[in-house]
Structures
1.
Amino acid sequence: MPRIVLAQIDCTVGDIARNADLIVDAIRFAHVHGADLVLTPEMALAGYPPEDLVAKDHFVDDIAEALQRIALACTGVTAIVGFVERVGDVLHNSAAVCRDGAIASVYRKRRLPNYGVFDEERYFEPGSAPLLIEVAGETCAVTICEDIWVPELVAEAAALGATVVLNISASPFHAGKGSEREEMLRDRAAGNSVHLVYCNLVGGQDELVFDGRSVVIDPAGNVMARAEAFRQDLLVAEVPAAPLAAHEDPLRGGHDEVWGALVLGLRDYFHKNGFSDAVMGLSGGIDSALTAVLAVDALGATHVHGVAMPSRYSSPGSLTDAEALAHNLGIDYRTLPIEAGFTALLDTLAPSFDDLPPGVTEENLQARVRGMLLMALSNKFGWIVLATGNKSELSVGYSTLYGDMVGGFAPIKDLYKTHVYELARWRNRASEVIPEASIEKPPSAELRPGQADSDSLPDYALLDRVLAAYVEDDRSVDEIVASGVAREVAERVAHMVDAAEYKRRQGPLGIRVTPKAFGKDRRMPVTNRFRG
């Protein structure tokens, strides 16, 4: 009966020494708890995904050196360590089996994902052979991430005599992924009458979040143990063991898991890049309010700075709502009026504008003054500007380059506007920090008198429905019309999405929470005349 430690650790891409320390600490923990085996996540030594770092020979050399140090710590316990392996001129995504102070064997990932956010075929060659090892009298098959999604590879391991299938993984989060993944793992275990031990990465890496939720499943498909979601965890499990009781078997979902991903992704982006404080514009609207609450949950109130930047068009309610939010959160709050700067720019441009009527240009100038002020605070104090745009706005270009798109990170850029409202109401159940007026009032950029988003965009419920079909499901305009959407709306939204690609390319990174986010998931050419 092996006792196994699932080392669900938060690795940092490129920080090989720290990643190695986390692994050695897990091995020491296993010694203390009498464990036979330690599993680490996929590519734990490099961090995942390392991308073009693997093209640097010294990066791969440093990984090999750190792996030797880890192997020396493996006396009386076996560790399976994810790493980048060089064999001649070829690189592999590999797992080292370390025991008795040495590297006993190596498994090379056989199925390399090359879709969505994954680019493994760009860097690695696939392995060709299974690997079975003995641990405390049990025959265990070693697999890496995508291998477990392939039914034939699990069936092959069972046919070769494996009673336990081990999988080290770096499976990124999107809403619903936890239940989808665990359902697949249950099917693999039950369909092959094997125990399945799955160790996933946890933590934020640029736009990706890894949710952890490492799990042990018995041959009947029952969950025997599960690690925490969105947190480092050293899970000790015996194989076999009794399944968890129903009340011990919660799997976070819905708004709770999305919020957990956003908090972890924002916190890790700041901490792993050496930043502590965030600054953002507070307009009194829902997007900046939700971003501020998220920043406080991730970084702490003392590290969040809110800035109101009223113009001649700002309503009194916007200012009072922004101030109320800052007071509720206990964050630093300051007011920097933009009227003088806006007027100076209008005066400077007046000779060139030659009495042309005001329009979008003048509206955008206000956003750009605000962006300049936020960047000035960022430069002066070392704070990172959080852009507050959501996926609905960024999809259709309802945002200003060098204005409200200014920022070092955009935490809600993958949340549709309707989801922003849902999350705001959900978060207020824990503590009512977002003023009700920010949630209930019609959304407006307040860049001209009486402006409302509905002047330029379809109702957000309809817009988000069309965007989900066009952006995430790659539906054609004809298909969207067939689903009941007016052709004029479908064509207009599709055109806005296509025309805004150049803007999105210049925007900051943000946290992926949907199955298809802008960026790595969806890569469209900027110069592109295909429509619909």
Note: The two ends are 58 Å apart (CA to CA).
2.
Amino acid sequence: MAERTLQTEAQFLKGVGPKIAPAFAKLGLYTVGDVLYHLPRRYEDRTQIPPIRLVRPGQHVTIRGRLRSVGARPTRGGMVILKAIVEDPTGCVALTWFNQPWIKRKLENYDGEIVAYGLAKDADFGIEISSPEYELIEDEEDAADFARIVPVYPSTEGLPQKTVRRAARAAIEYYLSLVEDPMPPSLLKQERLRPLAWCLREIHQPSSDANRAEARQRLVFEEFLYLQLSLAMKRAETHQELGIAFPIEALKQGAMLEPPMAIETAKPNRRKAAVVVKEERSTHLFEPELAAMRDGVPLWDQIHQMLPFELTGAQRRVIEEIWGDMAVPHPMNRLVQGDVGSGKTAVAACAMLAAVRAGYQTALMAPTEILAEQHFANIHGLFEHLGILVALLIGKQNSKERKRALALVESGEAKVIIGTHAVIQEEVKFDRLGLAVIDEQHRFGVLQRAALREKGLGNPDVLVMTATPIPRTLTMTLYGDLDLSVIDEMPPGRKPIKTHAKSTMDRDSVYEGVRKLVTEGRQAYFVCPMVSESEKMQAQAAEDLHYRLENGVFHDLKIGLLHGQMKGKDKEAVMEQFRRHELDILVSTTVIEVGVDVPNSSVMVIEDANRFGLSQLHQLRGRVGRGSAQSYCILISDARNADARERMDVMVETTDGFRIAEADLRIRGPGEMAGTAQSGNRDFKIADLVQDGKLLETARQAALRIVDTDPHLIRPENRGLRIKVQERRSQTAVITVS
């Protein structure tokens, strides 16, 4: 055989061979190195061997005794059940296997002791362990080898745990010495971590639970570190790029600025180094904003004129953080998190005003037409009296409307452009796009965000926003390359929404409460998980509920229906009727989850609430409570399992979106919660964002220190880290956000 390396094919490991190698390949295990890093998902502690008489149903237990009898019997269905009775001085237990004649041949002529592990359960004649793992005891070494902390690996059909364990053991025995530790000795010492080879041995063959935990800590830290190094390097690279330096301080002082005649910015080139481009513009395009500047009106004073309310302290803090980014000659990449109703749109408007007053265009891209039109209505209302033209670009516009909007954008007359993904279509040409704002950014892909940035002048600033609170651990993995601002204060005067969880038996009383509020002049939402009935899914359907309410308990009220399968113009017509209070009740699917703002609606009834995740329930609840009246959210569900009941309890107990997000992460896990929102950042082999949050923060701080002193990891001691980061980037380069 050729020289042993970590790239040696897995088939050459003891116990694998060419016949079993394809099963390993199904798990992505092609080489010895792959097997070494195929880490156990859990462990079975077989070190405790109780007397058989103490074994109880429901226990995963290791038993040891003498094989007393072996017998096989066929069933009517053709299955053969093998039963072996094992006894010790205190009692006996039955071991059973199904359709495994080779075990019968192995056991029937054996007269000795056996050790077995499995789940004990009640049977007709006492305790039984079905399909146990077992070992025949030829000597005490066999027993000791079996009765230990045993790893359980991710596996696949046709690949028994025993085979995977044997391969891992061979990899440790013959190849572990070839493993190079990529982490510098100074970092290991600083973080008090064990060497890699020791950790791999202990994670596969733990000598004690304490050593296994210590090995896991090192491997989790390492996994987090490579991710955080990659993100920190990406962030540092962005901060090195040339961008637009907005004259924020001059605008704050009300300085009379001249229009930017020749602006030098860096246009990133994917294949070559950044190149400088120059843009010449005539002065007449900037007269409206220059008029305000020449009046000497400071930026904050203009904001006070623009907004019909006082900003909260959190909003002012976040605005200053955004302006600080805009003022430096590097492109901004900032994420603004804020709970439902915290005032993110006002913050974005202040950033957009600064960009416009500096002589640039700004665009806001929203994921749905409803949300885009909502933003257009709000921002147009704020900017109109300042003489700033706002244009709307959405898919449903007719050719005349679209042609006019495109002309306004290209000429520069439209300073603010609001739209859906329509703003990144090839035919859209901006005059001087300097700031791009992306709302509900998790709904857009990497390519869509990049396409908007590419339409900018040079390297425009990017501000992304989300009303979906994200736990800190998930934020550090999904968006660690972005600077983060959090609006953690709600506007004064808003009353907390009162939330109640009700069973399906309580519908009549819920309907009575809704009628009382409607009689008082309020409006109500009824939200369903489905558009129409489905045989496969027993859940409330919007069309069915609309029919029953309209022809039943609320026959005297005006009820509308809204769902995603309706045409755009029909959806907008229904929403406009609801906004104008021409409808008392709106029955809808989750199409209203984002962007619907009707202050008079004060009750939200969510049918089959157990079918929604916590974050989605919180988003839906945020559609009410937007006025001065007390608002309510009623969760109707048949919450039979523990997770569903816990979700309902969390919603009743708190309206804090970040507490809800942490609970959602704990209940559903990071993969479910984030869906396919980001490229492979969450694909950890061993790390757990719920369990290992503190270690993630430790790894992040270590990564920031390393990148701060060695931005490109070119120092000799960081060579191993650089290789690992490059491997990680190459693995995720082809994965894009969907």
Note: Residues 186 and 706 are 11 Å apart (CA to CA).
3.
Amino acid sequence: MTEQVKQVQKTQQNSSPLKLDALVIGAGVAGLYQLHRMREMGMNVRAYEAGSGVGGTWYWNRYPGARFDSQAEIYQYWFSEQLYKNWTPSERFPAQPETERWMNYVADELDLKKDIQFNTRISSAHYIEETGSWAIETDAGEKIEAQYLIACCGMLSAPITNRFSGQESFKGQILHTALWPKEPVDLKGKRVAVIGTGATGIQVIQTIAPDVAAMKVFVRTPQYIIPMKNPKYSQADWDKWCEKFHELKQRVSETFAGFDYDFANKPWAELSPEERLTVLEKNWEDGSLSLWLASFPEMFFDEAVSEEVSEFVRGKMRARLNDDPELCDLLIPKDYGFGTHRVPLENKYLEVYQQPNVEAVNCLKTPIDCVVPNGIKTADGKVHEVDVIILAVGFDAGSGALTRIDIRGRNNRSLKEQWGEEIRTSMGLQVHGYPNLFTTGAPLAPSAALCNMTTCLQKQVDWITECIKFSRENGQDVVEATQSFEDDWVEHHDEVANKTLVVKTDSWYMGSNVEGKPRRLLSYIGGVGNYHKKCAEIADAGYPGFDMSKRPSNQKCLAG
């Protein structure tokens, strides 16, 4: 048992809350860095993590085939050149076990674990106006009082688990990709059902297909795909990337999606059909997300361009499916454009459906009705008998991690209730009415979906840290986004989003996968570089739009 847990238990026995300057929720990419930055400021800070180790996404998502789709050279922390150079990735897109080791390497190098309480969920956080602090409670009943509450919960960390009626009756094993057990799961020789063909489902399907006795894939929404090219990295390869550290650090903060590539071609209209095809082929061959995020931005706005790019990808997919009419109809999208959904990278995913032990079930024609003791029953009355069900059915993205905590701000307002009516934030950094609550990976910022996560999360952590530092240096210790600032940001966000084809497509980007969720593009689509520029302008101007004030006079800063 760690000393900090002993301290918490001791304070609870005395019915007195543990007092902190800042509490960080989560120990993933953002949480670790936020903890580091708060400690640099001399704050009494602790992070609380539901898992038994660090990593966030890379702790929980340990399903077969889980791996990066951002290149290792840019999925990095940029505040330390030494951290970058002293860890050598084994390949361009490392798998989950390696990434989890990398996250532990970072935590150990910065000695962060001593200030992280694991196996602990934050269940509630209420703002107390009389004290200007947050009263926080854990799932074990521990009470904490903190001046600043910083939510680094992750944008894809609230998995949808009870998706189908009858799940509790299943006699076999049900596994959710986002809650995959640490212990090895033996699927060899078993009949397996996979529900869901998004990025996660695709990784699972292509990985386990060679080992299972039989696999039924329940397909509802087909996906455009890009074949991943994943070369191994030697130390010499990594040394070359290390030479570009400062160049890459600057580059990723300026591009549309926080990668090292960007839209740099001539406009679509200025190119001949042959020139356009050359650009598309080049990006396809790169084996990364560059076809989506660095070929033609017009695909997001112009339906004619979207259709041409989409047809380019469909042609690649048809060739790999040998123009099999049934598989092509089931697995190739027709009703939405390339890039308006999340685009998965894959490795021989389409070829899986040509294996004799794999069957695709068309859930548009025969939707899943329920789970029964021996399998899955579809609307046509057929029972698909299986031994294992793997749920790759997604998340309550962006907002779900926060609405699963009972967060209450001024006048006891409930964040869950507010977001149940309309999802809105102030640049994804704060929500009006919740003083000293800061957020990363929250809705209406690029980090909610449309960014290389390490790029955007670090920028948000830096902004939050500097904002807190600025307020304290100026004798203020309460920060709250104004209503007018939030209104302006929501209006701008929607204006940019509504110009795109993304808002016309049903996907988790729009909250469409969660029944009753308010429809709004969860991620800011105006570009990472533009977002960072706006954040910097606000900071340089002294944080207009963010009211700063003193806590009630009977309260003093807890430390620092």
Note: Residues 556-560 have pLDDT under 50 and may be disordered.
